[in-house]
Design brief:
The structure holds two protein chains of two kinds.
Chain A lengths: L61 H12 L22 H7 L17 H18 L3 E3 L5 H18 L6 E5 L5 H8 L3 E5 L9 H7 L4 E7 L11 H10 L3 E5 L19 E3 L2 H4 L14 E3 L11 E5 L2 E5 L18 H37 L4 E2 L9 E4 L10 H10 L6 E2 L9 E3 L7 H19 L3 H5 L12 H6 L11 H5 L1
Parallel strand pairs in A: 2-3, 2-4, 4-5, 5-6
Antiparallel strand pairs in A: 1-7, 6-7, 8-9, 10-11, 11-13, 12-13
Helix pairs in contact in A: 2-9, 3-9, 4-5, 9-11
Chain B lengths: L7 H11 L29 H12 L23 H7 L2 H4 L11 H18 L3 E2 L6 H16 L3 E4 L5 H14 L2 E4 L18 E7 L11 H9 L3 E6 L18 E5 L15 E5 L12 E5 L5 E5 L6 H4 L12 H38 L5 E2 L7 E5 L4 H10 L6 E2 H4 L9 E5 L6 H15 L1
Helix pairs in contact in B: 3-10, 5-10, 6-7, 10-13
The chains are: A alpha/beta, B alpha/beta.
Chain lengths: ~500, ~450
């Protein structure tokens, strides 16, 4: 503890809120939490490259290590603890069956370079999840290897580039709605495209007139999220797809919000050419504090020849992994090995648990829950757009006007109420956006409690109880953190304290 | 449907408040032609037991690493992971938390990532490290692109000892971004001379250490040659345990170090999810891709951590971002940092010594087999052998005897007949004397 820290207790701990120093501050040289045998005596063959000098890793015992990470874990909010309504992130329950399946002997300890005959079950599993994804999306081909949603975007847009290159077409302009995730424009540029934003209409959807105006034979693709980041289904999507195809462009659908429609609508019926699927959103693989994700991409016939290596095929001898392209059309490799197998296993366990029937019920419940929140809060907060929504309810900060309370303040006050905040200030097209995605995981009781708390906060803001917001959060492991200072003088790693003599200078 | 809490009574009450007759009515914005009229051809929901049976059946068709003599490496390695690692990473507070965008309630994730960044910087001998990337191969490609941004040059020289997957991923990016990769032929014996290729257009040289064939090379002269021409040295490490025994790339003058971190804490899992490590000199930090955690103070003056320097990232910079990457490999980074904390200085170095000793003994045993010749003078825990027959054939025959013998070079380079007889073999602390003997004896029989 710093001596000048504001704290009410001697230790700095507050009941179950326990302070925890860095591992480097718990070091005792020579201490070790594993018992490894003495290495056998051999004549080393490291050339002249044997490491000289210490690395600087701290030494702890096993109980200290277990305690350290247990204490750290208790500083986190998690979907296992309560509603985690981060819009567009889809924080749904992560079944533990999935974890068990990923660790089965034969899967968890399968090496990616096993001889083909020794990996038939692994290929079968990849083939099985590919079948589910193709059936659910109504698309004929899938690339499993992308490591996350943004990696899937890259995969889809690279396939589009490859298809354009293949027909000798140099068009490079990509239309991206202003409501898109930041990854969309970043991805387009990473594939050598230029980005041309298209505005939203007053209803939160792509402005069809603006789209038509921007459409031309130099447009390579559109990157459209559907349902979009305002939580709305793009009604004109088929019209957009037809017009785009007419002009010779390709349709990249960002499938981040596929969880709203899975089992009810097949994106393949909407005229898209490719779409990534975040297995960690729609199919419940754990977010793990920011990853690992998995972002398989489904493709239309037009783009199927260009999908990345490797992929699994089946012939008379069983399954086979194609790692080297015979046709020369594949755009190449995106990742080491074959993709996020551990996530395929978890997602497949989830798909099989829900079945086709349960997936449709899950997406319906997710949309029902979001609309229940929208309907319940429409009088206390201000919906960004009229009408119903899909899987997430979007509000603007109009209801906070004149209160001195910002969207950020509301988020921090929610922390004090025991909730993780919703997504804030995204999408960018809505002022002070509050984007709430409850997912199908929440019970009605949980939603009612959340709604009541949000109503109380909205009323407190209007009643002028500004301190409740500006001081928030008061009860979390840390209060508001100084992000400006962190960026101005970056401290990105621990360093040993300077010796006393230097420190005194 | 055990994951769905709403009852039909709940659904009716909720629909009434919304003012619509059915859930289907909430989908009215979907073009009627696109609304599914009938059930998809997929099986209905299943209980846990049935799911376990089905997936267990697929698992049983593979040969896992546990329980057989196992010598496959090639960028993913079998190591013993202490029991507490898997227990701790499955704590729901870690497993089911999101990216730490609200730092007040995600200090747990932020603190372990700060510790992780420090550990990675220490291992690689670099000044800063990010909070992780997808895997080693994608990290390597990102490092090459970062070198292009820093030097404003567009050519990279690639060692013939770089893992072919790493090269292939970089090639994919090169194709679409229009930069040049000068990749040498596969270099099994570690004889290439890269310094002569460096010129004023060279952004970086990328080498693997130890090489994909297990070769070790002192990188100091190469680093100097790079720096003389204003180029950067990028070093890729596929077996991070090696840095417990070997001089760090940073100490030899590397500017960016990338690595596959799977070996520490993470399962083989048929190739993923793995853990990309990414470290660099501090002066390059604003050109780094990926998330960074930094130290700061909260409103009460207490130390805490936040995501920082996000003006490099796509959610702020959009089309001007340093990379399109949004996630890291958070949970894999957690497994890595827990395992490394359990090991500590002493355990990590001893683990490396055990790996090296195992490989030395395996090399001695296999080189005693008639017709087998070693290609490496030096190595860490992986080396290359020349067999008198095509290695792929021998690997298949040994697999039939449930010995997983290594990676035939032809798996990576199917079109190069000069490499057809080369076998890349790895040994780790998990191998026993009985494994070495079984491999040696079976190899002798297959070659007879």
């Amino acid at each position: 503890m710093k001596p000048d820290a504001v704290t009410d207790t001697f230790t700095g701990d507050r009941g179950l809120q326990l302070e925890e120093p860095l591992i480097f501050e718990q070091d005792a040289p020579g201490r070790c939490a594993v018992d490894l045998p003495e290495p056998p005596k051999v004549a080393p063959r490291l050339g002249k490259l044997a490491r000289r000098g210490p690395i600087g890793l701290p030494g702890l015992s096993e109980p200290q290590v277990v305690r350290h990470y247990t204490r750290l874990s208790q500083k986190n909010y998690a979907i296992d603890m309560g509603i985690y309504p981060l819009g567009s992130c889809t924080m749904k329950h992560n079944p533990r069956l999935n974890e068990r399946m990923a660790r089965l002997p034969g899967l968890g300890d399968a090496h990616p370079l096993l001889p083909e005959r020794a990996a038939q079950g692994a290929f079968e599993l990849m083939d099985r999840i590919a079948h589910w994804l193709k059936t659910l999306t109504g698309m004929p081909a899938v690339a499993l290897s992308p490591g996350a949603g943004a990696h899937g975007e890259l995969c889809g847009m690279m396939a589009i580039r490859a298809a354009l290159d293949d027909r000798g077409d140099t068009r490079r302009r990509v239309l991206v709605p202003q409501s898109a995730h930041g990854t969309n424009p970043a991805t387009a540029v990473a594939c050598g495209f230029t980005v041309d934003p298209i505005p939203a209409d007053a209803g939160g959807r792509v402005d069809l007139a603006a789209f038509r105006e921007k459409l031309g034979t130099d447009v390579a693709a559109i990157m459209l999220t559907n349902p979009n980041t305002c939580g709305l289904f793009e009604r004109d999507i088929v019209t957009i797809a037809d017009a785009l195809h007419e002009a010779g462009g390709y349709f990249y659908c960002d499938g981040a919000n596929f969880n709203a429609i899975v089992g009810r609508v097949r994106p393949g019926d909407l005229g898209i050419d490719c779409m990534h699927i975040n297995l960690h959103k729609t199919f419940s693989t754990p977010h793990g504090g920011g990853g690992p994700g998995a972002g398989p991409v489904v493709f239309s016939e037009a783009l199927a020849p260009y999908i990345p290596l490797p992929y699994v095929v089946r012939d008379a001898n069983g399954f086979r992994l194609v790692e080297h392209d015979g046709t020369g059309k594949s755009f190449g490799r995106l990742k080491g090995f074959h993709g996020q197998m551990g996530m395929f296993i978890r997602a497949l366990a989830y798909m099989m648990s829900h079945g086709g029937d349960g997936l449709a019920q899950a997406s319906g419940d997710a949309v029902l829950n979001a609309n229940y929140i929208l309907a319940s809060l429409k009088n206390d907060m201000t919906p960004a757009f009229p009408g119903t929504c899909m899987h997430e309810a979007l509000f603007d900060d109009e209801f906070l006007k004149g209160t001195g309370v910002s969207t950020l303040d509301v988020a921090k006050a929610m922390i004090d109420e025991g909730f993780h905040p919703m997504t804030m200030y995204f999408p960018l097209i809505v002022h002070g956006a509050l984007l709430i995605e409850p997912t199908e995981t929440e019970s009605k009781d949980s939603l009612d409690r959340f709604v009541a708390a949000m109503q109380a906060l909205a009323r407190a803001a209007r009643a002028g109880d500004a301190a409740r917001f500006s001081e928030a959060p008061r009860f979390s492991p840390r209060r508001r953190l100084d992000e400006t200072a962190a960026a101005r003088h970056p401290v990105l790693r621990w360093k040993p304290p300077a010796p006393a003599s230097e420190a005194a200078e | 449907m055990r994951y769905l809490p709403l009852t039909d009574t709940d659904r009716r009450a909720m629909l009434a408040r919304i003012g619509v007759p059915s859930i289907d009515a909430l989908y009215e914005d979907v073009p009627a032609t696109a609304r599914l009229k009938k059930k998809l051809d997929l099986p209905d929901h299943l209980g846990e037991l049935e799911v376990e049976r089905a997936i267990g059946g697929m698992a049983a068709k593979n040969i896992g690493a546990a329980g057989v003599p196992f010598f496959i490496g090639g960028g993913a390695y079998r190591h013993h992971v202490p029991a507490s690692v898997d227990y701790l990473i499955q704590r729901g507070e870690f497993l089911t938390s999101y990216t730490p965008y609200q730092p007040e309630v995600t200090q747990g994730t932020l603190q372990y990532l700060f510790e992780f960044q420090t550990q990675v910087a220490l291992l690689t001998g670099m000044e800063v490290a990010n909070a992780s990337m997808y895997d080693g191969a994608t990290s390597a490609a990102e490092a090459v692109m970062m070198a292009m941004r820093i030097t404003r040059r567009n050519r990279a020289i690639v060692s013939g000892g770089l893992h072919p997957h790493y090269l292939a991923v970089a090639r994919t990016h090169a194709r679409f971004l229009g930069f040049e990769l000068d990749a040498g032929a596969a270099d099994p014996e570690g004889r290439e001379t890269l310094a002569a290729k460096i010129d004023e257009n060279t952004a970086c040289v990328i080498v693997q250490y130890p090489s994909v064939f297990g070769q070790l090379a002192d990188l100091r002269a190469l680093a100097e040659a790079c720096h003389e021409k204003g180029a950067l040295l990028v070093v890729a490490v596929t077996e991070i345990v090696s840095l417990g025994a070997l001089e760090s790339p940073g100490a030899m003058g590397a500017d960016i170090v990338v690595a596959e971190g799977q070996s520490i804490g993470n399962a083989l899992s048929f190739g993923g999810p793995y853990l990309g490590l990414f470290a660099a000199r501090e002066k390059f930090v604003r050109q780094m891709p990926g998330r960074l955690v930094g130290e700061t103070l909260d409103a009460d003056g207490r130390r805490g951590w936040v995501l920082t320097l996000s003006t490099r990232e796509q959610h702020i910079r959009r089309e001007k971002a340093t990379s399109n990457i949004c996630t890291n490999s958070g949970l894999c980074a957690l497994a890595f940092t827990i395992h490394l904390t359990l090991l500590g200085e002493e355990g990590y170095r001893r683990l490396a010594a055990l790996n090296h000793a195992a490989a030395v003994r395996l090399a001695d045993r296999l080189c005693a087999v008639t017709g087998v010749t070693p290609l490496n003078q030096s190595f860490f825990n992986e080396f290359t052998l020349r067999l008198p027959k095509p290695a792929a054939e021998i690997v298949d025959r040994l697999a039939e005897r449930r010995i997983l013998a290594g990676v035939p070079a032809s798996r990576f380079w199917p079109d190069d007949p000069a490499l057809a007889n080369l076998l890349i073999v790895a040994a780790t602390e998990t191998n026993t004397d009985a494994d070495f003997e079984a491999f040696g004896a079976a190899l002798a029989e297959c070659l007879r």
